Structures are given as C-alpha cells and as structure tokens.
Predict the 3D structure of the following.
Amino acid sequence: MAILEAEHICKSFSRTEALKDISFSLEKGQALSIIGSSGSGKTTLLRCLNFLETPDKGVIRVNNEVLFDAEDPSTRQESAIRKKRLHFGLVFQSFNLFPQYTALKNVMLARELLASEQADYKARKKEIQEEIRAEAESLLMKMGLSNRKDNYPHQLSGGQCQRVAIARALALKPDILCFDEPTSALDPELTGEVLKVIRELADDNTTMVIVTHEMAFARDVADHVIFMDDGSIVEQGDPIQVFEHPAEERTRQFLSKVTI
Amino acid sequence: MKKWITILLTAAMVLSLAACGNSGADKDSGADASSGADSSDDSSGSDMEYVKGKGKLVIGITDFEPMDYKADGDEWIGFDADMAKAFAESLGVEAEFVEIDWDNKIMELDGKTIDCVWNGMTLTSEVTSSMECSNAYCNNAQVVIVPSDVADKYQDKDSLSDLTFAVEAGSAGEEAVENLELEFTSVKAQADALMEVAAGTSDAAVIDSLMAAAMVGEGTGYADLTYTCGLNDEEYGVGFRKGSDLAKALNDFFASSYEDGSMLECAEKYGVQAAVIEQ
Amino acid sequence: MGQIMEQMPIVVDALNVGFLQTLKLFFVTLIGAFPLGLVIAFGSMSRFRPLSYLSKFVVWIIRGTPLMIQLLIIYYFPGLVLHNPIWGGGEAGRFLAASVSFILNYACYFSEIYRGGIQGVPVGQEEAGLVLGMTRSQIFFKITLLQMIKRIVPPMSNEIITLVKDTSLARIIALQEIIWAGQAFMKGSHGISGAIWPLFFTAVYYLIFNGILTMLLGRLERKLDYFR
C-alpha cells in the first residue's frame, strides 16, 4: 500500500507554471529520486509536500489520510497544517541549522517544543528531557558526529552540518524524509560522507524522497526514479529502466548531458 | 509668533491626520472667535475664574537674581517671586513657579502651561502686543558691556559705531542696537551675550542694568568686563494671556501694596527699592 | 583656577541633579522605544496593506522632522490649539511630554533597525522551523529573535549613544537636564553668576556615561560572538 499519494498537483507563481498536473505515489520503506535540470519544478514539488508552498490544485494523502485538498478549505488552515507537516521531514540544500544552538540542541529543539505542549510535560519534565537527549545523542552517533555534538554550526564543515540537519529531521520520526539537493552546497570532497549517511538510511528502509543532481547516487539508492522537465513528470519507473533504457527523448537528452 | 503657530498647526495637522483631524480643523478656524461658553477658554475674560478653579497660579520664570532665584534650598525667592506669592495669596490660590525657556514664553502662556510671566520682563512692543500686561512696577535700562581695559573709549552712544554687538534675541537690548543701526548678532540669552564678549567673538553686549550690576565687574564671573553707557530707559511689567482679567487684578494689588508700604519693604530686601515705580 | 575649585562643589551638585533628569529621560525612552519600535517594525512589515502604509507614514513623519519640532508640538499643541493643556506646566508634565516625544521618535528609528535585523535573518531559518512543526511564535522567540539581536546590536549601539546626547534637546520645553543646569551658571544660579565653565564641564558627564555604555554594548556584542 502506498504511504504517500500525490494527485494532480498544480502550482503557479505569478508568471510561470512551476508544476503541471503532477501525480505519483510512494511505497512505505522505499526511496524515490527526483531528477531533472534546474528549474524543472523538483524543489517546488518537495516544498509543496512540506507545506512551504500551497498547491493551487491537487490532493496529497499520507497513509490514506487526506492532508491537503485544494478543493477543501478546511485542509488549508495554518493550525492544522502545523501537525500535518510532522508527517514529513525536510533536509535543505543550505542546511538551515540554527546558528545559536549546538549540534545537539539543533537536534533536540523541535522535540522539546513539541513535548512542552504535552499534558503531562510538567510532571515528567526531567524524564522527558532525558529521553529526548538520549535519542538525539544516538542520532548524532549514527551520523558519526558524537564528538561534535557540543560544537556550533559555524565550527562544523558543510558535510558535518548536513549530517546534523539530517539528524534534526529524523528526531521527529517523520513518515517520509525529504532531501532537497542535499549535496549541492558542498565541496566535492564532502559529498561522499553525506551520501553515505543517506545510503545507510535507505538500507534501513527509511521512506525517502530525494531531489538530487547526483545521478549515480540516484540510480544506486532509489527504488523509483522520476524525471521532471518544465514542471511535468516526463518519465518514471525503476532506476535501471529510466537510466539505462529511457523511453522518452527528453530523458535521453538530459542523461546525455550529465555525467553519471 | 503668528508664523510660529501657523507652522506648528500645519505640522500638527499632518501628524494627527486621522485622529484629531476634525477637532483640529474646527479649532483652527474658530480658535480666536470662540465664545465664553467654553469655560476653559481664556479669551472669554474668565482667566481669573480659570486660575481660581484650579487653585494655583503658575508663574513662568527664569533663574534671574535678584528677581527670581534660589538662595539656599528649594524655594524661589527674589523681588518678583515674593510679590508673586503675595499676589497669589490675595487671590486665594497657591503660587507655583516653573522655569521656562525664555524664547517660548508666549507659547507657554497661550498653551496654558503657565498663567503669567513675572521675571523682570521689559515691556517691549513685542511683549505688550502679545500679552496682557500689568502696569510697570520697576525701572530698568539697557547698558553697554565692554572689556574693562577699553571702557574709556566707549562712554557715549556716538562712540559705539565701530563695535560689533551681541544681544539677546527679542530683547529690549536688540531693539536698542537696531534703532541705533549698529552691527549685532542675536544670541539665545543675555548670559550668552556676555560670553560672546568674554570670548572676544563680539566686541560688546547690551543687557539689563539690573543684570549687569549682578554679573559683571569685580567679584563676579566676568571680572574683566564692565558696563558703560545706558542706551534707553525701560520698565518691567508682568505679562498675562491676552485678554486676561488678571492684569487688572494685579494693578489693584500693586496699588494697595505700594500704598501700605509692603511693596517697598519687599524691594529693600533685595536691594531694588530705587527702581520701584510709584503705583 | 582657585575660583573654579571654590565653585566646584556647588556646580557639581547642580549638575548631578540635571544629569539625573538626563538619565531618567534616557532610560524611560529606551524602556518605551524598545517594544514600541518592534510593534512599528511588525506594522510596516505587515501583509495587511493599510497597516503597513500607516506604519511607514508615521516613520516618515517622525524621521523626516526634527525632534525639536516634535517636542514643541507635543508639548504646546494641546494647550495652544485644542485649549486643553493636558501636560500642565509643572516639571512632571514637561518630563512626561518629553518622554512621549522621545519614545515616539526613537521607536521609529529603532523600528527601521529591527526591520533590517528581522529581514536580515535568512528565510531558511523560518522554513526550517516550520518543517519541524514549530509555531510562528516559537520560531520568533526561539530562532529568529537572538539572530536578529546579534544583527542589530551595532546599529542600536549607535542610536543609544546618540540618544544620550539628544536628551539635551528636551530643554526646549524647559526640562531641566544637565545642559540647562550648566547654562544656569552663566546667568546666575546658586549664588554663582557669569560662570561659563560649568556648561563645558557637562561634557565630562556625557563622556563618562557614554564610555560606560560603549563598554557594556561592546561586551554584549562579544557575548553574541559565539555564533555566526
């Protein structure tokens, strides 16, 4: 059963049509790669899933629950959206770590704020905070950053920052983890460590949507690939089929221009 | 002064665009002609009632020995201050002294932040045209201040033509040098005029003789300055809001206190008895 | 010189009283203008057009006219034009009117600094907070605020030091701050007349106080240096 279903998503900015009738679905435990040239609408699609943009048309369902329906205004309320966002995690191209907090605090902050809204927070404050801290530390360990947890973002390399950002997104245990070109802001020698972490997540059957320019990575890691061009899905299927035997001329052209 | 109010009005209208646009416009056109129906309006001749109603007479002053000043402690004393206290007492109200910026005295009066100006104020045409003034109660003169070492050269009016003067803006001294067609600079206060001479930025200053007696010559802060000739004689009066009935009340008060000797007694206390004018 | 030493204790006493008034106006202005400036900043950044136009209009008026004129209008306008001298003639009323003028004036300058500070925080910070399920107020207080403070400390320090000196403008409505107190000795006060030096001596007070402020603000700036 599909964990994520997006149907007929359309989104226009003042002059341009960024997304034209996008539909796709994703199975639980699978990794989806979205490839395509800059300006093809990949990032906009990811931002729509995370409610950073509001689609003009379309429906988004997670676990058969309608999170967004352009026809139904009740799904667009700010207060409702906040909880729905928690189904998704998003890792940004430029990390967007909070500079005034240590790596550990970056991972803990959102969990702490959510926990403080719990009814029994005051009574179990210490216990809850210990739990959050322990989980955050184990996430950083998983990212290979145990010895960096008390550093501030400006003291970390780009690759380390991005790994903290991944831990931060994982801390909220999202159903679907989204990556928006996670290695594009990194020096080439630093992309490897980030890709390695994402690969490990894929091996653990984390459900993921990855927008990337790393074609080899997309091919190796993804269970499913979508090629977008000019706001539309041109071709989708399993990686071998899309990369080795593209059905569409536009896909062929794109793949011939990028090195794998 | 009119120009000032116009500028203020214009700016204030812009400032209070939405909030008091309506009331502002009403008052603007009707301020001068408004009737006595409004008890807070001063032009109706009910100023006495207004002052009695609030139970105090607010007296605008500057620190000016021997008229209004503080010796020891917090209380204002001086010939003017003591007379003002007695006048307030005769009205059955409290006297409250407020130091003001001398340039703004008319605005303070019209804006009702003070009720009178009682501070050795020379009755110039500017003063008498914008305030309701009492009878003159004290004589004064404007005198020329020069450095002591050159004082011999400037003992009469005709010798002054090659000097540059510093005078207080809007003062009787300014009027005097203007009439004599002398070269002058207007400064903010009489004290500033003295500083100009002391600093050499002006050759001479013109200030009140009462003030000159207190401030220049041996034993003062301006030991190197002295005063020479007087330019014109003038008189001190007390200023109220235009149209106020308090001016007449004060004239009556001056007359009775001159008669029973209390005015002269007060003047002797501060050494100005020679200048007091018969009421 | 001997005369100055004789006058010194009297002058210092009077200047202290004046400087207390200067300090009072300074602190009251800061306490009022810090939050009001934030309100105006949010107003001018509001997506509700009339509110943002109104805020920008107020900022234009206040920043476009001299503080001295604002003091005169706020103090004298109610009595002169509305025939209702709301401030009264006493010292407390003058202080209140001066406070209102200064708070309004400085709030407008602060609002522009705040606006720059808020807009200088990358939009990605807010988005990161949003996708982590934070509310707008959590994002502001937990994430944006401190980054904004870090950005505004240097320009704010400038304004604060200017404010110390600007308080002297309040003497136009006869608020007896330190310059007024210093000038009084020229004309005669406390039995001293014709003394020019007290006026110049007030500069020492400003220098020392601004020195302390500069040090404190510098310390705050360094304190926020732990992140970038």
About this structure: Residues 164 and 203 of chain B are 5 Å apart (CA to CA).
